[in-house]
Amino acid sequence: MTLFHSAVVPGISITNYVHRLKQYSFCSDSCYMLAFIYIDRLLQKNPDFALSRRSVHRVVLTALLLAIKFNDDVYYTNLYYAQVGGVVLEELNRLEAEMLGLLSFDIHVQPQLYATYIDYTRAHFLQLFEQQQQQLASAQSRADLKEAKKAEPQGSAVSMDTVPSNSEIASSY
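User: That's the sequence. What structure does it adopt?
Assistant: Structure tokens below.
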């Protein structure tokens, strides 16, 4: 276990947590990519470090804090980010120092590396978007088939048993 592990799994999903950070951190968009790069570096430099449901929130918060301080000219105090992230100030201060140590204070990102991550992220999200569009199209096709089946008249199908023979037709004239 690391400093980043909480005693219990947080009651907020990581998706909602990131949305919360986005809503209240008021940082530049590039900070999110930098935080992603920092997390990737953290995992590369520390192969025994594993993200889990009990650690990912604190890792994301701390990586974003480092990115904001490194990248943005104007930012809030650690107390503010601690409140936004749902931790106490002292804990955030320890997490910040711990992450800097685990990263060997390597938080500078070369423009070429940043561009590589941007390209990767775009390609990944484009692929996800295309998969989602295919799933939506497939779901729509299934829904269209269900609607078409519902629209078919029920019980009005003609069976060969009910078709009159030629002699029956002739005798009816």
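The two ends are 94 Å apart (CA to CA).
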